[in-house]
Every structure is written in C-alpha cells, then in structure tokens.
Amino acid sequence: MLLITCPHCGPRPELEFTYGGEAHVARPADPSALDDRDWSEFLFVRNNPKGVFAERWNHAHGCQRWFNALRDTHSDAFVTTYPAGAPRPESTAEDVR
Amino acid sequence: MRRFNLGNLLSEALRGHEGWGRQWRSPEPKPRYDVIVVGGGGHGLGTAHYLAKEHGITNVAVLEKGWIGGGNTGRNTTIIRSNYLYDESAHLYEHAVKLWEGLSQDLNYNVMYSQRGVMMLAHNVHDVQIFKRHVYANRLNGVDNEWLTPEEAQAYCPPLSIDPRARYPVMGAALQRRGGTARHDAVAWGYARAADSRGVDIIQNCEVTGFARDPATGAVTGVETTKGFIGAGRVGVVAAGHTSVIMERAGVRMPLQSFPLQALVSEPVKPVFPCVVMSNAVHAYISQSDKGELVIGAGTDQYVSYSQQGGLQITTHTLDAICEIFPRFSRMRMLRNWGGIVDVTPDRSPIIGKTPVPGLFVNCGWGTGGFKATPGSAHVFAHTLATGEPHPINSPFSLDRFRTGRLIDEAAAAAVAH
User: Fold this and answer.
1) If you placed Cys at B179, which of B45, B118, B159, B286 could pair as Cys (CB 3.0 to 4.6 Å)?
2) What is the chain B residue with the closest CA to A37?
3) What's residue B360's pLDDT?
4) How confident is the model at residue B417 (pLDDT cuts 50, 70, 90)?
5) CA distance A3 to A13
6) How many Cβ atoms sit within 10 Å of the Cβ of residue B338?
7) How far apart are CA B315 and CA B286, in angstroms?
8) How far, in Å, CA of B286 to CA of B325, rounded?
9) How much is the ipTM here?
10) Residues of B with CB below 8 A from A21's CB?
11) Are B241 and B342 in contact (CB under 8 A)?
12) Centroid of chain to Cα B293
C-alpha cells in the first residue's frame, strides 16, 4: 500500500485516498472549435509514462480535498505532492532514486 | 522440430528422452524481416505462428525484451470464456474459443485447455437482470451461456455457499460450459515452437529502443534494438502494459493507461474445485489449477504503475470475498502473489489494427483479460499484418474508434471480471 503525503494532512495510507488520473489536463477553452481528432485526444488520450507522472489524488477519507502528486510509475515512489492549482514542480531523475 | 507423437515418445522413452532437442532456436537477428512482431507473449508469438501458417509469411522475427511468456502471459489466471455482451466482442472472443478448442492439435503441443465451465455469480437483482441479458445476447451470437438457479449453481460447483443470509447471497449464476482454463506457459511455448519450426526467428533479450522511418512517406522501415538495427516491411507492436512506452518511441500517443493487476495462488491441495467461478460484484475469481493450487485473481490497483506489484489491501479484499462465498477456503494458506501490468483502454475493449504511421500496427488494450483471446487476437492480427487491412472480426476494434465515437463499451460488462 502506498504512503501518500496529503499536502494538507501529512502522510496517510493509500486506503484514505481515491485516484483521479492524470493531472494538468486542461479542458479546451472552446470545445466546439475542436475537430474530432483533437476532441478525442482530450477525452481519451493520456500520458502513460514509465517514469515521473503527474497525477491527481483525492483525500476522500480525510480532508476530502483534491491535490496533485509527482510519482515515479516504475518504482511507485512519490517525488512530491502539491496543492491542486499549483504548477507542476520541476523534477529530475535524481528525485526518484 | 521433433513432433510429439506416440512413435517418438516410445523411441525417446527407450533412450532416456535425450533426443528431443531444443524446442526453438535462439538465432541472431537477420538484417531485415518482412514482418517484425514486438513482444514475445502469447499474442505476439501466436501472431508469428499464424503469419507463417495461414499467410505463408515466414521471414518474421519476434523481438522480446525479456524472455518469452515472461509478462502477462505467465502472470494471468488463465481463464477462458467468450460470454461478452456486445456483438463485436462476442465475435472476437468466440473466434478465440473456437481456436482454443483445436489449439493443442494445431500446435502439436498440449496447452491443457480444460473446458470445465465458467460460472459468473449474481448477488443482487441488478446482477440477475444483466446476466440474463448476457445469456440472451450470447445465445443470439451463437455463444453458449445458460442461467442457473442457486441450487443448480451449487450442484455444478459444490463448494459454493448459497446460504441466503450470506454477506453476498447467490441469487443465480450464468454458466458458459465451453469456458475454462489453459496452461499459460504452454501457450507461449507451443506457439514459439510451432512458429520457429516454420522459420520464424524468436529473439529474446532484445528491446526495441526506436523506430526508423522513411523521410518521405513516414512509413516504418525498421526498428532500433539493443541488438542493433533490424529492417522490416511491417511492424506489429504487441507489448501489453508497455505499449504506450513503445508507441511513444514511434511518436504515437495511445488511449491507454497501465495499471497493476494482482493474482495469487494457494498451496496445492487435492481436487476440491471443479470449475471457474467469478463474481463481478465482489471483484473475485477463482479456479483450481491441475497442480492443485487455488488460482485467485483480484481487481486492478487504482493508480498508473509499471512496478509489477500492487497493494496488499487489494488482495485482502478479494480474499475476504472468496472466504465469504466459499467458507471452506477460510483456512487455506496462500503460497505467493504477484502483479502484472495491464494496459486499459477507455472502453475496456482492445485495439487491434492500423496506427497513423504507415507500416506500423498495434494489438493492445486487452486490459485485465487478454489471455482468453490469445489465439483469436493472434489470428486476426496476423491477417492484419499480412494484408495491411483488418480482418472483419477486428475491424471494429480500430484505434480510430475513439475519434469516430464507435466505442465498444464493455466497461460495465467486463471491467472487473476478466
């Protein structure tokens, strides 16, 4: 089980959290201007890296707030967590060692 | 390749079984192949087999990063069934079941396909309604499936508790009698041996690190690997959980997310469990291998990962449910558990067909349930690679469906219980 550091509550077991998929996926400002290809990209295509991934978590059984995390999907080690709305922090390969 | 038959078996028995030889070669890669299959699991090896057997294309290489059958082919719970709701899925998985039924003969290798029946439990009124709908839809598609009362279900599977006071009461079950299990390693080995005997090169410890493209047309002309450049007429990527990683190297983003999926086995015991039982509602499926171990599968972990391991709470949750439905297993000891990485599409149906890159084809997105489809998937993908166009069975499973909106939404029907 992952140990996840909620930016508001501190480290808590994964059981308290639900997952929200990739972070920083912005809804297009004018969806009707998009063609089918770009719209399907927004709806269905996500980054799926073997490495550092920006993702959303919800502290469902805690403060119930959404926040973002950088996690290495190869080792499952968290690089950092940060409040929703904050820009994605810089991460280097060193972070995930 | 020495065929397995009574004559050869007797002659080998007389000389201590020393004359069988290696079952497949370990060749160095040639400079160029007509077709390169990236991924040496069951689907990839099967693709090579059907390319050689059905289409006469034998200048084929299967490139495997690790060892053949070492990924999800060797990690799944080996359940085979075709009782999918939608027409497209029913045709695809039924195509596979029909090939499973003759596979041992086709490969001259015993894949131990055991049609012991797959029973899916209904625990509430909604389960009953949707499973009955499945039964009717399956029958219209020529797929066997029948509805059982709780008493009939228990008669078919005596360890099942149908106590109405149970936490998950059994209100009935859908039974596909032609479903069952097969020996997963034998599937990889049998396909490898059969493909190799027709001239296919199986190259292990060879990771694809990049793709060479024709500057004018953009078409794939070969692959960069850890064993150097290998030219190719066409390339088929069959890389399961790592498909996104490989396709990224060709500049193609896929509608896939990779998740850990866990399974576990108990210590081996005498035959106690005659069939496969699945429960969608409680995320559990169980069967007994011919070795005697109970083989138990869980749901996926919730987060994207390539770590090939998951959280213990997932398996604990599954075992809670198993012990509730089968009280006699409450004191069984579990021997080991493990995880594999499954590539999941938004509609929980696979992607088999062309990509935006000419000459590059993909067979992926099998999510939590690819093993059952191995022969069918390999068969239609070989057709796609040989002709450049999808087989009628896999044409609905195009990558393009996410643009056109013609999704095959098995998420509700099959998201958990593969």
Assistant:
1) B118
2) B403
3) 98
4) very low
5) 5
6) 15
7) 13
8) 11
9) 0.94
10) 257, 304
11) yes
12) 20
